[in-house]
Fold:
Amino acid sequence: MKTTLLILGITLLTIAPLTQTLAQDDDRPNLKLGAKIGANLYSISDDPGLVDDDTGLGYEFGIYGRIGDRFYVQPGLDFVSYKSHVIRTVQPRPNERDAFVAHYMRVPVLVGFRSTYDGSVLSHIRYFVGPSFAFNVGVKDNNLALRRKDVRNAQFALNGGVGFDVRFLALDLTYHYGFSTVLNDDDAEGKGRALSLTFGFAF
Structure:
């Protein structure tokens, strides 16, 4: 709860002055809508319920709205599939590694800075940061005795990265640092870590 309040507080403190700046620059802030698709590398930090955990390759796609030009706010809605190769301390087949795949609906709220660089190919470079809320919508069948009920429904993360714009196309590299434990166990400590690369467009 304290982590959630901290994230919300940082978001409000960041967005409020930025919104005022946008309003001063233009009575009608620039609005762009976009879509993206990409891949992610995901792992879980140390957890007493896991003997071992290897990074897995997942995928994600989503839509977003970008309000502003040089300084902007970008809320979005993503479908994310995270994959990790895990061995649990308690599972039907001891010491057998299997893929743990969880699906989430994620709502990020990013604030960013867009450079004025205008080259022949690369038009802008963007830097962004912000929190996200993710809700677990499913877990793929596995041999680890991990089901949807074993995964925490609501998960929070802090996201940051860099983006490259080539006219209406965008390439984003984002790091996701989870604050919530992935599993529901009382002694669970493992939190999600992910690096995503997405390709999209805005209009």
